[in-house]
């Protein structure tokens, strides 16, 4: 059984297994319900040839990336602030623990009002999906900076501002990284909701709109695209963390709590 | 046409007139097990909900389960996944469905009238005073609906090319409302009392026209799997009969219907009452229905929305309708 | 080891003066036992630590050694009494009092190299890069880490990390070193080496050291004077032993054994 | 400023601040876009009086609870299995890392096909939203059980099965708990998607359907209900963990990564 | 302490026999340094540990003490050579060889009370509850934890936790105790107490003990024989010292100092 433990053999078997299960499902339910691998590939090729799939992937990626990057940029300083200032934390914590149960999709109307039907409202929805995860991870990170580090810096003459800059932020980096990486997953999850509104392109649009014409093969193409986009960017980001942030204690493995 | 219906003949009397086939259905429904039907609906349509709520389906031997979807189009899609036995909707999604599978139109709900067309209103930003002003503007359409077809017809009437405007696809009227309010779209087709009220109150926008001023008449049709029509024509006929009874109840008891809709789907009463004043569900199949279907099919085929052309007459099965309302089938496809 | 084996008495200004010092906490009102009672950790401590001396605070676990040291460091506030260093009252941490923590892992900055850790205080003072480099080289050499300047803390052994802590605080040229069981987490062999190194460094630099431990042997190996803390609560300095042995000291020496027995007896009774 | 640090004062200020911000928004945008606190309370009372709000909350809670409980019950053994058996882990990990980016909402059609238009498809959607979080947390927990514990048990004569039962599972309990608690948050987020289709009742239905009638006050009632339901059940569950599972090392505080 | 100060020679069956034992790892092919080379941790170790003896393995950090102990425990497999206990080859863990780990926190079951921890092995053997209770009481008393049976590990001090580990393995009545620096994480005072306790328990029960340490003083305080491991890689038992001192031993005794110097010299050279 040692060959089973070899990674490539496992992966190969996995894919054979997945494809077989998929084909079986397709045969069982009929192609309009579950399109088989072949139909899906055909649908994908069709969308690829007329250029819409690459365009959709590009535009969804742009939205996910913008919302996620902006959300993280806002959430990190906020998280540090909430973590450092007790008064603000007493304000913010119950509010955060209330809002975090409200799904991004519920804000569609509100965001339309605020940000219009253009890119901004979609990016804002992704931003919202990102914000709390990054903020709460950063907050936890700030709260778990060892008191010894802060004391050491202080008795070496660091000002409060220097402590934030040179101790709190670098020490919190792994938490920020985890938060930002988890938020990336959530952003991909939110793209369908974001592109449900006022949108004529994007992978989420493809998934949602194909339902109207019952092009289940396109739905599958969309789903697989989302999964792949998420998988690839997550790996890239993990690799980036490992390479660039390793000295801050960032490890590149999969974050658990998506 | 709108004048031909509804007549006051009760369905029972009519069933008796029509001889033994309807008669046996009647007795069968009283003795035998009720037939279960899943019916796709949307929350703002009163006819099916009243039929279920008032026991009209039950009376006709049908144990109905209403499955609520956001749009008729989604309801029609649920036929494909065998989660509904009967669905209804506008020509556009209906044609899309019959082009793809073993489904057929069993009746029209008789909406292709001037009165019903009047309920589709075009709201535009104030700077647009004449249809010609739409050139170069952003026009809203709801994805998966006939509105793109409506725009096509409307624009060509005024000599505007689709290339000269920008179409913005949207997911709902609320979205269109906000977009119009903010000036991100310049023109929106809208229907439904609740929504029309909102658009009417919108500063910076006004109603330019309504659909009755255009050549477009949309029909609304009822669709069922061909297997159901072939295997249980009597059930289908009973269903249509129940629908007719319900549509008459709806017209006669607007207050009661508004209560039912508020109670069951939380549609505000005022909105229901306004809608009811113009509602026009007539179970029939007329030339105008056939006409609107053929024209829209042509549009859909030309625009690649329907990928495989088909013979429309093969997809219209009116035998059950004829058994209960023979005089309401005025078109012969 | 070529230096004289007895330190010259240092100047007055580094002296730590403690008079009638108290530290108390309110018991948690919510918790089962107390209902808001005041709970004294340290009560009426009087102590004078002279500039340049190596003073050891010895006492059982939980008696309040860290509490006392943290008050001198300015990390926690006193409840009442006087606490002065070189004449001025202590109310917050200062560059004159450096702290070496027990856990190097929690007090070093793991994202900085050894050199960057050592230069931290100077960087905070905005000393130019080139000058920082000169100082850090000097202290990295002093603690015996020559050649390890570009490593990260995680690449070092426990003993080496404590050397980094030492170099880091020495680079700021503090007058007082406060050390809270700095060798408590090291294995026996490494600990022995570090004790020797600390004595060497103390004799080479001109610092006052307050060293907390609960190991009698370590206390006698290091301390010029040993202050014994009574077990808490309300603990105080119950006795001060003078240890006039010459450095470096050997555990196997007869006098060493004698002091060990005396202090051990103090705890056993 | 010490009074600011008192919790109740902070909370009071917080609520005053939140209400003020809300009212300002309502005045700024007009009630059809943002209903003010008063309109919202009125809308809530209206829905409460005719019994629909309690009914909706009950039915949504039932769906969230069933999907979440079922999902956790399935995910925990699966997570243990994947964690314990290397061969299976090699199969499952890449698949999990692919699927976790596909949002529950994308499976609406598929689940309708498989589970029909009744409760089952809605519960299945919640279940899906729960499954991966609990599975991946359990998996991580199993992988971080100290080798010493397993070795100790083994040299005291425990069989592999006894090790799973008496060592792996109790040692993984805090991870399972965290996963299950985080999944509860995601379940509330998924309820809008679950009740978007083939549904006449529930808080998600209220939020989604009220858009059709432009009853923004009801949307707000729905959002606040979701937030409160999440907040309360999360606190209750945290309390349960602290009381019942504390000896397994479960701490009751808010899990960070929702 | 009323027992005879020299242990009687125990029966043959508990003897651990090691002949030409090797343990090697392949270097990671991916890592920078090696390219699949074989790397010997332990090479050609010969050793016989007699039943009932207190054998100490002494060596510097990283020399392979834990590796050797883990092979005897059956946790890791040997690369080549012979390894037998009481005549039968060792290839997996067994109830005859109990292990006391250095870190009580990672090896005790924190969700079980002291008593449940002690009864764990018996529960796995499906001994009835009442009988388990009798045994656990006995060993909880033996290690001096009377009255603490219903506490959870987190409520105990480090020394008490190591007592729980001891009671837990003794309750299974193993023939051999394998202890890997069990007191390495304790403070100096607690460690001294635990060393005394271990000697007492060893003399009261009839066990073979293999005890790993890198502390010379600890080795001499405890061991009947001390096996010195040479620094790795390819380390082996370079010398075995017999320590015929009577128990309980005192650090201050002259012979003690003599052994200490000799072994220290062994390492210094
Ligand atoms: N913030 C606090 N609130 C209440 N009690 C405290 C607080 N900090 C410390 N204590 C108590 O003060 C006592 C002394 O603690 P301290 O850490 O000073 O002891 P120590 O002598 O350093 O012990 P060790 O040798 O274990 O480090 C302990 O009983 C401790 O529980
Ligand atoms: N799985 C492994 N693969 C490769 N090398 C290993 C492995 N396990 C241990 N080693 C190496 O074997 C050597 C001996 O390790 P071991 O833990 O036995 O030493 P030790 O004497 O117990 O040290 P310490 O006193 O620090 O506990 C070390 O150099 C270690 O890096
Ligand atoms: O039925 N339509 O929504 O067009
Ligand atoms: Mg302390
Ligand atoms: Mg070891």
From TrEMBL, chains A, D:
SUPFAM superfamilies, per database record: MetI-like
Domain of life: Bacteria
Annotated transmembrane regions: 61-83, 95-117, 123-143, 163-184, 218-237
Keywords from the UniProt entry: Cell membrane, Membrane, Transmembrane, Transmembrane helix, Transport
Keyword Transport attributed: yes
UniProt subcellular location: Cell membrane
Stretches assigned to the ABC transmembrane type-1 domain: 57-237
Membrane topology of the entry: Multi-pass membrane protein
PANTHER family attached to this UniProt entry: ABC TRANSPORTER PERMEASE PROTEIN MJ0413-RELATED, ALKANE SULFONATE ABC TRANSPORTER-RELATED, MEMBRANE SUBUNIT
Similarity annotation: Belongs to the binding-protein-dependent transport system permease family.
Name of the molecule in the record: ABC transporter inner membrane protein
Organism: Paenibacillus vini
UniProtKB/TrEMBL annotation, chains C, E:
Presence of keyword Nucleotide-binding: yes
CDD domains reported in the protein's UniProt record: ABC_NrtD_SsuB_transporters
Statement: the UniProt record of this protein carries the keyword ATP-binding: yes
Domain ABC transporter intervals: 16-256
Keywords: ATP-binding, Nucleotide-binding, Transport
GO molecular function: ATP binding
Family matches, as SUPFAM superfamilies: P-loop containing nucleoside triphosphate hydrolases
Protein name: ABC transporter ATP-binding protein
Annotated organism of origin: Paenibacillus vini
């Amino acid at each position: 059984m040692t060959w089973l433990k070899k990674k490539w053999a496992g992966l190969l078997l996995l894919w054979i297994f997945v494809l077989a299960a998929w084909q079986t499902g397709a045969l069982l339910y009929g192609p309009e319900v579950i399109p088989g691998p072949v139909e899906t590939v055909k649908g994908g090729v069709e969308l690829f040839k007329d250029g819409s799939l690459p365009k959709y992937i590009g535009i969804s990626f742009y939205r996910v990336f913008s919302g996620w990057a902006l959300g993280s940029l806002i959430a990190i300083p906020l998280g540090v602030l909430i973590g450092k200032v007790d008064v603000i934390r007493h304000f913010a914590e119950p509010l955060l623990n209330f809002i975090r149960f409200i799904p991004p999709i519920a804000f569609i109307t509100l965001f339309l009002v605020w940000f219009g039907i253009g890119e901004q409202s979609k990016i804002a929805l992704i931003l919202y999906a990102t914000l709390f995860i990054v903020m709460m991870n950063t907050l936890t990170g700030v709260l778990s900076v060892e008191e010894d580090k802060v004391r050491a810096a202080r008795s070496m003459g660091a000002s409060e501002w220097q402590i934030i800059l040179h101790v709190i932020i670098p020490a919190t980096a792994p938490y920020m990284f985890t938060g930002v990486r988890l938020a990336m997953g959530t952003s991909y999850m939110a793209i369908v909701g974001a592109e449900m509104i006022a949108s004529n392109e994007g992978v989420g649009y493809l998934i949602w709109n194909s339902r109207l014409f019952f092009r289940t093969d396109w739905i599958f193409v969309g789903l697989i695209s989302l999964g792949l986009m998420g998988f690839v960017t997550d790996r890239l980001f993990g690799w980036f963390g490992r390479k660039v942030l390793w000295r801050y204690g960032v490890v590149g493995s999969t974050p658990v709590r998506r | 046409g709108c004048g031909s219906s509804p007549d006051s003949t009760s369905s029972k009397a009519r069933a008796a007139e029509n001889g033994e086939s309807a008669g046996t259905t009647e007795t069968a429904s009283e003795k035998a097990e009720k037939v279960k039907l899943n019916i796709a609906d949307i929350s703002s349509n009163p006819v099916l909900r009243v039929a279920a709520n008032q026991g009209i389906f039950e009376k006709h031997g049908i144990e109905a389960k209403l499955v609520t979807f956001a749009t008729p189009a989604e309801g029609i899609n649920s036929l494909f996944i065998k989660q509904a036995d009967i669905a209804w909707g506008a020509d556009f999604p209906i044609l899309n469905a019959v082009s793809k599978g073993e489904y057929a139109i069993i009746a029209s709900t008789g909406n292709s009238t001037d009165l019903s067309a009047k309920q589709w209103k075009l709201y535009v930003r104030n700077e647009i005073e004449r249809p010609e002003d739409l050139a170069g503007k952003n026009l809203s359409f709801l994805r998966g609906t006939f509105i793109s077809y409506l725009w096509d017809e409307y624009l060509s009437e005024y000599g505007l090319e689709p290339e000269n405007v920008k179409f913005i696809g949207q997911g709902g009227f609320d979205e269109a409302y906000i977009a119009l309010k903010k000036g991100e779209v310049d023109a929106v087709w809208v229907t439904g009392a609740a929504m029309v009220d909102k658009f009417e109150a919108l500063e910076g926008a006004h109603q330019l026209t309504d659909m009755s001023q255009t050549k477009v008449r949309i029909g609304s049709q009822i669709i069922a799997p061909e297997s159901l029509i072939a295997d249980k024509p009597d059930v289908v006929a009973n269903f249509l009969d129940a629908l007719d009874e319900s549509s008459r109840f709806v017209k006669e008891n607007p207050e009661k219907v508004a209560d039912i809709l508020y109670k069951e789907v939380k549609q505000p009463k005022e909105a229901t009452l306004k809608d009811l004043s113009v509602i026009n569900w007539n179970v029939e199949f007329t030339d105008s229905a056939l006409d609107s279907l053929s024209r829209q099919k042509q549009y859909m085929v030309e625009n690649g929305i329907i990928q495989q052309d088909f013979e429309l007459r093969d997809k219209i099965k009116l035998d059950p309708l004829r058994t209960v309302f023979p005089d309401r089938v005025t078109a012969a496809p | 080891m070529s230096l004289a084996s007895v330190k010259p008495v240092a100047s007055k200004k580094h002296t730590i003066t403690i008079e009638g010092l108290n530290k108390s906490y309110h018991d948690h009102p919510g918790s089962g036992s107390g209902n808001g009672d005041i709970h004294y950790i340290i009560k009426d401590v009087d102590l004078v630590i002279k500039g340049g001396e190596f003073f050891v605070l010895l006492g059982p676990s939980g008696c309040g050694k860290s509490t006392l040291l943290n008050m001198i460091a300015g990390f926690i506030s006193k409840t009442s009494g006087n606490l002065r260093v070189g004449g001025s009252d202590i109310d917050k941490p200062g560059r004159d009092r450096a702290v070496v923590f027990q856990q190097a892992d929690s007090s070093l900055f793991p994202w900085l190299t050894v050199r960057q850790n050592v230069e931290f205080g100077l960087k905070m003072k905005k000393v130019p890069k080139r000058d920082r480099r000169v100082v850090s080289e000097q202290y990295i050499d002093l603690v015996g880490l020559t050649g390890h300047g570009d490593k990260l803390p995680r690449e070092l052994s426990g003993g080496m990390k404590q050397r980094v802590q030492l170099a880091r605080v020495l680079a700021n040229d503090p007058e007082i070193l406060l050390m809270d069981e700095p060798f408590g987490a090291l294995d026996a062999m490494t600990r022995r080496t570090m004790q020797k190194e600390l004595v060497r460094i103390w004799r080479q630099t001109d610092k006052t050291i307050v060293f907390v431990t609960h190991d009698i042997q370590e206390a006698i190996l290091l301390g010029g004077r040993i202050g014994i803390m009574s077990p808490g609560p309300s603990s105080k300095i119950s006795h001060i032993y003078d240890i006039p042995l010459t450095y470096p000291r050997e555990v196997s020496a007869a006098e060493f054994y004698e002091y060990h027995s005396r202090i051990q007896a103090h705890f056993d009774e």
